[in-house]
Every structure is written in structure tokens, then in C-alpha cells.
Automatic annotation (TrEMBL):
Residues 36-268 form the Orn/DAP/Arg decarboxylase 2 N-terminal domain. Signal peptide: none annotated. Residues 309-334 are annotated as: Disordered. It comes from Embleya hyalina. This is Diaminopimelate decarboxylase.
């Protein structure tokens, strides 16, 4: 379901701006940040929420989160520079990811940015990159976890690599502050995080013993968005309570642990919408009518792997009785029928939805909202055939442009 505030803003902006464009709601991100922060802090008074830049580095989100006290989680040198430009101080930036170039590591360590080491080779790179007289290195080890297929994750160190990593870092004068356990994405409940902690039950107390206080336990991102009413996620309090319980089983008191989470999708996904219009309606002898939008799935690239609510909006108040959508029908009672919804690109697979219920009266010009594009879809979107659409956010009774349109197609 698309949040009513976002929907209202999209409709308002569409009266003035030609489609397609995106609308984001930073207010929704702030609400989710506040709820998440509060729930985790009840169990872990030392708590850091590190926003995953890769999920959407839009300044409307990142600068707001910086002002709210979040930390930035980045996975490349360019992302690191972006976070600095957004105002994050180096001690509120964590540098993650499987590949860090030597110059990036040197810069991160010289600034005092936290580094999550992903591999045995990177342990040596970090030891080599430490400069004398620089800030004390803030280093954690990313530990591999088991995947659903029974194999080890490609990320992080294996158990037999940890002792050597610690030795090399100790020789370089570095005390490992903690660990990072990245469990993947779209994790429905706390069990997966508990399993990752349990997998390392022998190593964690040892590392905690040797770490400078407090021991950092970073459980990464992967949390589901809140608004999926069909398959609701566990509440934050449940995640926090269960992770705290698992820590307790290892002899780690939650109040002595500095817990870090790195949410992306759960903060951003539901707070962005792609606003398009029906460009063409085609009748076929068999099957549902086809709607072709004036936007393509290159602007919402996770349509095949994630649920994206599609809602039809009346083009003016007189049309209200005609409007409706998949999950939030407006004007119930009017005749409805199924549609197949396509994008404007010249290939068969440019499909937003094979079947969506909508008002029978749909015609070209009708506004269509594709929801849940606030994470990954927006940064993944690629320019093809037409320029990149602008991004707007509601502001008072109006709106502001928060990202310029791309002006070129190459
Ligand atoms: C290291 C790390 N942290 C955080 C995230 C954010 O994950 P999500 O958007 O599922 O919360 C990712 C996503 O790939 C990641 O790789």
C-alpha cells in the first residue's frame, strides 16, 4: 500500500509537473528512523543506526538522517566522499564492502572512519595503510555466516582466518573493536540474526574480552519494511529483545555491547513512489486489456523481485468515482477489470504487472503510482531512451525538487 501522505503529494505535484517523476517522503524516513532507534535503544543503550548509503544516497534522505544523528554506512570511496559532503563526521562513517582500494583504505583510516574488514587480504591492506600519528584505527572484522543453501557466505572471514587476522592487526598496534555479521536482505524476523550470532558463539566472547570497551556487535541491515500488511514483519521491539537475549546466552550483557544496525530498505523503500500516466490502452481479443505507461521498468528495476503496489489515481476530482487500484480502491462500486501493465520500453519484458485490478474506465492520461521504489529502485534506475526523471518531495502545501532530472540519454 502506498502511504496516503505520499500519494497525496504525488497527485498534487502531477497537476504541475509532467510525468514521469519520483516523489519521496523524507518525513516517512524520519518516522521509521525514530521508531527503530527507540526500540533498539531500550535494549542496547549504546546503539548506532548506520544508514546504508547504497540503498538510496538521495540527499533528502542522507542529510536528514545525518541531522537526526545517524551514522553513514558506505561501501566505496565515492560513497565515503559523498557522506563527508553530506556532513557526516568521520567517526560517524563505517566503511563496509568486499572491495576497498588501497587509496580508499588509506584515506578512511587517516580520517578515523570505521573500517569493516572483509577478507584475509584486506587485513594486510589495513595493517599496511595505517599511518603513524593518525587517529586510532576503528576496525571490526566481518565474519562469514551460513546461508540458506547451507554454504558459507562469500562475505567475511572464515573461522580459521580469524586468529591470523587478529595477530596481524595486533602487530600493527590495532585492537579489533568488534565484529560485523551481515545476514543478507529481507530477513523476516530475528531468528536469522540470532543464528548468525550463535554460529560465532565461541569467537565472540573471546573477541569481546580483548576489545577496547564497548565491544561492537554490528548485525548489518536486511530488515524488512514496516508497511507490508499482507506479510507483516516482526516489530522492532521483537528484533531487539531477541538479539539481546542471544547476546545474553553468550555472556555478553546488552548494556555492555555497542550494537550497530545498517538498515537501508527498511528505512527508505516505502517512502518513494514513481509517478506515471497511462499512455496507451490496447484491447485484445483474449486476456486483459493492456495499459502502456509513460515510464518503464528501468525506473523501478526490482519490479520482478519485490512487490510494488500499483494504484490508479483520478485525473481530476470529477473522475474520483472511476479511480481505484490493487490494494486501495477508491470509488469502490464502479465497474472494475483486470489489466496487464507495461512500461514504455521496446522489449516484451518491460512489465510492471501481469494482472492488476483497476476501474474499467481507465484511459490515457490517468495517473498511475508505482509504490515502494524508495530503496534500490531509484539508485539502480538506468537512463535509457529517455532522460532520468526528477525527484520531488512534499514541502508544506507545495513541493521541492530534490534531484534534478538527467538531461541527456547518453
Ligand atoms: C554491508 C551491508 N549493510 C547494509 C545493507 C543494507 O541492507 P538492507 O537494505 O537490506 O537493509 C547491505 C545491503 O546490501 C549491506 O551489504
Amino acid at each position: 500500500m502506498i502511504e496516503s501522505r505520499l500519494k497525496a503529494a504525488a497527485e498534487r505535484i502531477a497537476r504541475e509537473i509532467p510525468t514521469p517523476f519520483y516523489v519521496v517522503d523524507p518525513g516517512g524516513v524520519e518516522r521509521d528512523f525514530t521508531a527503530m532507534d527507540k526500540a533498539w535503544r531500550e535494549w542496547f543503550p549504546r546503539f548506532t543506526l548506520a544508514y546504508s548509503y547504497k540503498s538510496n544516497p538521495l540527499t533528502a534522505f542522507t542529510r536528514l538522517l545525518c541531522a537526526l544523528g545517524a551514522t553513514a554506512e558506505v561501501v566505496s570511496g565515492p560513497e565515503l566522499e559523498t557522506a563527508l559532503k553530506d556532513g557526516f563526521p568521520p567517526d560517524r562513517i563505517l566503511f563496509d564492502g568486499p572491495v576497498k582500494h588501497a587509496a580508499e583504505l588509506t584515506r578512511a583510516l587517516a580520517l578515523g572512519v570505521g573500517v569493516q574488514i572483509d577478507s584475509a587480504a584486506e587485513v594486510e591492506d589495513v595493517a599496511a595503510a595505517i599511518s603513524e600519528g593518525g587517529p586510532r584505527p576503528r576496525v571490526c572484522l566481518r565474519l562469514a555466516i551460513g546461508t540458506d543453501s547451507g554454504e558459507w557466505s562469500r562475505f567475511g572471514l572464515m573461522p580459521d582466518e580469524v586468529p591470523r587476522a587478529r595477530r596481524i592487526l595486533a602487530d600493527a598496534g590495532v585492537r579489533v573493536r568488534g565484529v560485523h555479521l551481515g545476514v543478507g536482505t529481507l530477513v523476516r524476523g530475528p531468528r536469522t540474526y540470532r543464528a548468525a550470532i550463535r554460529l560465532w558463539r565461541e569467537t565472540l566472547p573471546e573477541l569481546a574480552h580483548d576489545a577496547p570497551e564497548p565491544f561492537v556487535l554490528n548485525i548489518g541491515g536486511g530488515f524488512p519494511p514496516r508497511g507490508d500488511t499482507a506479510d507483516p514483519a516482526a516489530p522492532w521491539a521483537e528484533f531487539a529483545a531477541e538479539v539481546a537475549e542471544e547476546c545474553g546466552l553468550l555472556g555478553l550483557r546488552p548494556r555492555d555491547v555497542h550494537l550497530v544496525v545498517e538498515p537501508g530498505r527498511s528505512l527508505a523503500e516505502e517512502h518513494g513512489v514513481l509517478v506515471a500516466r497511462v499512455a496507451v490502452r490496447k484491447r485484445r481479443a483474449e486476456g486483459p486489456d493492456l495499459l502502456v505507461l509513460d515510464a518503464g521498468t528501468n525506473l523501478a528495476r526490482t519490479v520482478k523481485s519485490r512487490s510494488h503496489p500499483i494504484e490508479f489515481v483520478p485525473s481530476d476530482p470529477d473522475d474520483a468515482a472511476d479511480a481505484g487500484g490493487t490494494r486501495d480502491p477508491i470509488g469502490a462500486g464502479s465497474a472494475r477489470e483486470p489489466y496487464a501493465v507495461y512500461g514504455n520500453n521496446c522489449y516484451e519484458g518491460d512489465v510492471f504487472a501481469r494482472v492488476v485490478d483497476g476501474p474499467s474506465s481507465l484511459r490515457p492520461g490517468q495517473l498511475v503510482l508505482v509504490g515502494s521504489v524508495g530503496a534500490y529502485d531509484m539508485p539502480f534506475a538506468h537512463v535509457w531512451v529517455r532522460p532520468r526523471p526528477p525527484v520531488y518531495a512534499p514541502a508544506g502545501t507545495g513541493h521541492v525538487l530534490v534531484r534534478e532530472p538527467g538531461r541527456a540519454i547518453r
